[in-house]
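Worked Example 4.2. Consider the chain below.
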Amino acid sequence: MALPTVLKLLELEDVKVFKMTADTDTAPTYDTAVDIPGITKIGIAPKVENKKLQGDSKLLDIYSKVTEVELDIEFAELSLDAMKVLVGGEVTTSGTTPNQVTTYSLKPDTATAPYFKLEGRWLYAGDGIGDAVVRFYKCKVSDISFEINDASGNFGTVRAKAFAIPCESNNAWFDIDVRESAQPLA
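Applying the procedure from the previous section yields the following structure tokens:
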């Protein structure tokens, strides 16, 4: 029996980012996966450009084409390693136990946002489906923010916006895989 092509988007369970090291016409290459902990949302917004053909005092035709894809990502925990992949910067550790210090530092000379791949997996996609995975091959952050609240507030969140860009090798903004058998992300 064929897998369903109608998906229910529930239980986003895992998201990973991979810093892109090269984008060639044969295949992109990436660094090791970095987990985005506490993922709560991936918003996907294809932007459509419309051209209207007017004539004889009426609308004759409309041409519509997706020109870019925008992402809105929200997560509940601040990962310093994920920040490095998303916006650049450096993560360093110094000292020895019990006086270790890990520092995330964003400076002008390390603040160039790299390209990255983003993969997200949701556990429930509907009856007869093991899981589903969305994969964006080449992304770049356009905005990132995080909240730090006092004890009287709620937990802070991290929000990032990014653009997906077609890769050289597959010319795709993203793919969605519907899988009969559930498998964790690599």
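Residues 141 and 162 are 4 Å apart (CA to CA). The first helix runs from residue 80 to 87. Compare this with Example 4.1 before moving on.
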